[in-house]
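Lab channel / #folding
Pinned by the channel admin:
"Please post every new chain as: sequence first, then the structure tokens as a reply. Keep commentary short and put observations after the output so the thread stays searchable."

First post following the new format, from NK:
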Amino acid sequence: MTSRPFLDPALWQEHVYSGGWRAAAESADLIEPATGAVLTRTGVAVAADVAPAARIAAQAQAGWAATPPRERAAVFLRAAQLFQDHFDELALFVTRESGAILPKGQHELREAIAFCQIAASMPLQSQGQVLPSTPGRLSLARRVPLGVVGVISPFNFPLVLTLRVVAPALAAGNAVVIKPDPRTPVSGGFLIARVFEAAGLPAGLLHVLPGGAAVGEALVEDPAIAMISFTGSVGVGRRIGELAGRHLKKVSLELGGSNALVVLDDADLD
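Reply from TO:
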């Protein structure tokens, strides 16, 4: 633990993260749900920001995929340590931004640490197999990175539901463009960028473009984006699936669910 602040609001005020912290086309106040007060101010992306980000990501991805596995793994170990070192500060910010209770924010931080530790093991795992073939022939199959992955993440568990995609995608040798929910652009994006920048992730591999539906659609339709991961409502998921299908683009959709709760007659409701 450390008493020195890790998060610096000046990084994302009037800025987005794309090839580094750069001036945003727009900006907006971020309101703390519990108080109604302004928590911070952040940059907001527009649809025109997507193509340059995707292009930079694609250029950076080739070098990252060729980086020795142990060097890639080390980035995630450092990221996990940063989440641990600044646990209290980050958990409190996630709590305040998402309108949650502190134990929920702490849970997100614990999961973030675990995701980074798991991701650190991925570059060192076997990525291929020998296939049956006729005598005198050798048939091999190996996994290769997709390229650039677009991540459209929700507000309810912003850190967990973003990082669970970002960490393995980067570990596998891909670049990532995140469009976090506009209600949680820091926990779902800028906080992650801050951690990975400090952990030594090469520039250009991670982009954070908070914005509205136009930014999301531009991300889905951009030809440099090889895959879209979306967590959110059924209606938006259908729209993303439709757009991705037009481009024969890989897509992963986790859509709105309903959790059942059974209360027995002898339950103590007090």
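NK: The chain is about 40% helix and 20% strand.
TO: also worth noting, The chain has a mean pLDDT of 95.
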